[in-house]
# Entry
Amino acid sequence: MLSVDGLDFKYGRRDILRDISFEAEGGKVISILGPNGVGKTTLLKCLCNVHRPQSGTVSLDGEDILTLRPRDLARHIAYVPQKMQPLHSTVFDYVLIGRRPYVDLFASSNDTDIAWNVIHSMDLDHLATKYMDSISGGEFQKVQIARALTQDPDVLILDEPTSSLDMSNAYRSMRMIHDSVRNENICTIMTMHDFNLATCFSDRFIFMKDGRICRSGGKEIISSGLIKEVYGIDMEVVESGGKPYVIPVAETRVASDGAP
# Structure
């Protein structure tokens, strides 16, 4: 169980996050939703100690993870940022870097087996010998996720994991993440702008506004009123297959003479 309690963060004197508290379970996916600039990415960076919060705690099964050494922290939390500069290394070597928290000098056969298994599960076999700086942005995004899963984390933190992927690859990547989370009991927290993809693969939702949690809960909290409050736009929420989906409100255009 990941527990966040009373998290505050500032850039200088500017409040970015205020009194953030929530819990996240293993085997579940939480999507953090909200418009740009509300502190979603900053929150993710605080959770993995890239940013040091001014106050509050982040604990995993009762252990304060913000006090851990980077190597020890990396055994618990894997973080995939939205943007990262590609290295001049093969895809396989890049994915294998995920085993670094467990390796002293050289990777073991078990480490390489784990890397190959993740590469295969994400359908990246054809890229294994290619160099990271020669593959597409969408492929690079999938390889980053593969490296994070190779890290064998308790908590997986993803910042816009499908931002560079087309519809097909976005769905397949989210399905793979979802299945891995279930099978390995990984606690997963991600930011998303694709609202409907988030509702399809998430168990819980955190809506943020002005650096605070506006509302949190399961699919039952999602409504047109909440979308209006958080995003300031009129949208319709419909249910399909037991999941809520957001669609634009249909507008009736009336001609100047009153005819439809």
User: Anything to note?
Assistant: Confidence is low (pLDDT under 50) at residues 252-256. The radius of gyration is 20 Å. The helical segments are 40-47, 70-74, 91-96, 109-121, 137-150, 167-184, 195-201, 224-231. Residues 43 and 96 are 27 Å apart (CA to CA).
